[in-house]
Design goal:
Translation Initiation Factor IF3; 69 residues; 2 helices; globular; alpha+beta
């Protein structure tokens, strides 16, 4: 599973990096982030691309999710 670290980055950068990984053929991604807005937007992108989204950690300053197709 490919890992993507977008902690400390503001939207739209986390969404763009996730989209880039998806477009490059990633079928499973473990994504780490810190912005709640980014978490919501990355989730929306993944769902719109047909991925299942599993939030592993959801704290105020850190979130982790896995997306799978």
């Amino acid at each position: 599973m490919e890992k993507l670290d977008v902690r400390g980055l503001s939207c739209p950068v986390p969404v763009l990096r996730t989209k880039k990984a998806i477009d490059a053929g990633a079928r499973e991604l473990h994504i780490l982030g810190s912005s709640q807005t980014s978490k919501e937007n990355v989730s929306k992108l993944a769902l719109s691309q047909g991925f299942a989204v599993d939030i592993k950690v959801d704290n105020k300053d850190l979130w982790e999710m896995e997306i799978r197709k």
